[in-house]
Amino acid sequence: KSFLNHTAFLSCSFPNSQKIDLKDLRVFWQKGDVEVVHEVYHGHEKHDNLSPKYINRTKMDVDKWTLQLLNAGIVDEGLYTCIVQHRDKGSPKLIHTSKCLLQIIANYSQPEIEWLHAGELKPNEYLNLSCSSSGGYPEPKQMSWLISYENRTQSFIRHMDVSQDAVTKLYKVTSKLDIPVPTNTPTNISCLLHLGEQLGSLVSVPLGI
């Protein structure tokens, strides 16, 4: 995983137990089946075969057998293959391949609750709220609402509207909540954005009523 516009590290996992000199190797990374991302040919970087969008964006750490992909974007997501060939008395011989799946993460803004109606709140009416968060990637799992009274808390899951920017590919999500106006008890309403198991959740500033 890599954060958007940061450097991604793609491991080749090549142990090189025989300590073969880089001058006797051809090492290259490719994305999918056709795009060559980086190539080291007998100790020298070679640019002839590179896909144009990776030129001047890659750097190989020879000690760690890791490729650095600079300014990683959402279009760079996907499966990368590292291929190592040994030139030993004649034609190159394949001695190692490994795969690395790159996923990009962009941080969502803190969820924000908005009133959808004007005027004073009156008993027996409905409270209309919306909660939004934007600028994130990948698409989140769901949005939920927490309503805390003095001695209990209720959780609600409502439909989440999702839109994706055509250019940046970043997501905006919105959820709406309609509930009867709470009476006779102080109430706090919060909105939670669930990003997935490894990324956790984001919570809004509570709205007090």
TrEMBL record:
- One term under GO cellular component: external side of plasma membrane
For the keyword Glycoprotein, the answer is: yes
Which parts of the sequence belong to the Ig-like domain?
1-98, 111-191
What superkingdom does the record give? Eukaryota
Q: Which UniProt keywords apply?
A: Cell membrane, Disulfide bond, Glycoprotein, Immunoglobulin domain, Membrane, Receptor, Signal, Transmembrane, Transmembrane helix
For this UniProt entry, what is the primary localization, expressed as one broad class? membrane
Q: Give its localization.
A: Cell membrane
User: Its topology with respect to the membrane?
Assistant: Single-pass type I membrane protein
User: Has UniProt tagged this entry with the keyword Glycoprotein?
Assistant: yes
One GO term of the biological process aspect:
T cell costimulation
Q: What is this protein called?
A: CD86 protein
Source organism of this protein record = Psilopogon haemacephalus
Gene giving rise to this polypeptide: Cd86
